[in-house]
Each structure stands twice: as structure tokens, then as C-alpha cells.
Design brief:
There is one protein chain. By secondary structure, this protein is an alpha+beta fold. The termini are far apart. Helices cover 20% and strands 57% of the residues. Strands 1, 2, 3, 4, 5, 6, 7 and 8 form an eight-stranded antiparallel sheet that branches. It has a single domain, classed as Immunoglobulins (Immunoglobulin-like), CATH 2.60.40.
Length: 155
């Protein structure tokens, strides 16, 4: 009788674990398009860019943007790293435009960035590229999705 209880317990545990794993299916989050890019602040201290992106979350649960690993390029030249400054949550089963504030400080920029930035300060528009990964998290599971876009931006 004791052996029967153990077998029943293991079978029930296995059934419970398999049903829980089946509930947490993950579908890839996709960046559909960038709808707007604007330079909010462009000083000798750094760059602050606001980006509006259409992002599709096909999952049945909300996903939080928790981190980023982005590179900033001006006129095709890498000027440094940047991070998302604000918290963004993607609602479940959504395909919406979200606004991100992307910041890069002077300390995150390479030494070649200063002359390049000074050269574009007088101009009206620049070619800006942001490339890298955004890290999202839901239900204890983290995933990264790629971001890569180029836009002409007014200063």
C-alpha cells in the first residue's frame, strides 16, 4: 500500500509539472516598425532620444521591458552605448506603439564621438541608428529581442 501511494504521488507531481509547463508558452515579441524618433536633449553631457516603436506581444500575458544593450551611431559612426531610461510594459495580445527614452552619457561614448557630435550640432538633421537588444521579462522568464533602425532626425 505504501508503494502505491508513492507511485500515485509521483504520477500526480509529473502531471502537475507537465500541465504548468504547457501553460507557459512563449511567442517571440517583435518590433514591427519605428514610427517616430526625436532628439530630446543633445548636449556635451550626452544624448537623450525619444523613440516611438510599434511592438507586437502575441502572448497571453504582459511583458515588462527590464534592460537594454544598445549602440548609438551617428552618420554611420558608433558613438557609444545607450540604455532605455523609462519602464515600459507590453500588454498581453497587443500590437501598440510604445515610447522609449534612450539615454547615452558622455562617459558611455567613445573618444571619437566628441568631434563627431560637435560637427553635427550646427546641422539641421543627422542620420541616427540604434542597434542592439532589448531584454524583456514575464513570469520569471527573460528573453531578448533585437532592435535595429536608422532614421534622419532633426536636432
Amino acid at each position: 500500500m505504501d508503494m502505491l501511494k508513492k507511485i500515485s504521488f509521483y504520477c500526480l507531481t509529473l502531471l502537475l509539472i507537465s500541465s504548468l509547463v504547457g501553460c507557459i508558452t512563449y511567442k517571440e515579441v517583435q518590433m514591427i516598425k519605428v514610427t517616430d524618433v526625436g532628439v530630446k536633449n543633445f548636449t556635451t553631457e550626452g544624448v537623450e532620444v525619444e523613440v516611438a516603436m510599434q511592438i507586437k506581444n502575441p502572448n497571453n500575458y504582459k511583458i515588462s521591458i527590464v534592460d537594454s544593450d544598445l549602440d548609438l551611431f551617428v552618420k554611420g559612426n558608433r558613438i557609444g552605448t545607450a540604455n532605455i531610461d523609462n519602464k515600459v510594459t507590453l500588454p498581453k495580445k497587443s500590437n501598440q506603439i510604445h515610447r522609449f527614452i534612450i539615454k547615452s552619457s558622455l562617459k558611455d561614448m567613445g573618444s571619437s564621438a566628441i568631434p563627431l557630435l560637435m560637427g553635427v550640432l550646427g546641422g539641421g538633421t543627422i542620420d541616427l541608428q540604434i542597434k542592439g537588444d532589448i531584454k524583456a521579462k514575464a513570469k520569471g522568464i527573460s528573453k531578448k529581442f533585437p532592435v535595429d533602425f536608422k532614421k534622419k532626425v532633426k536636432l
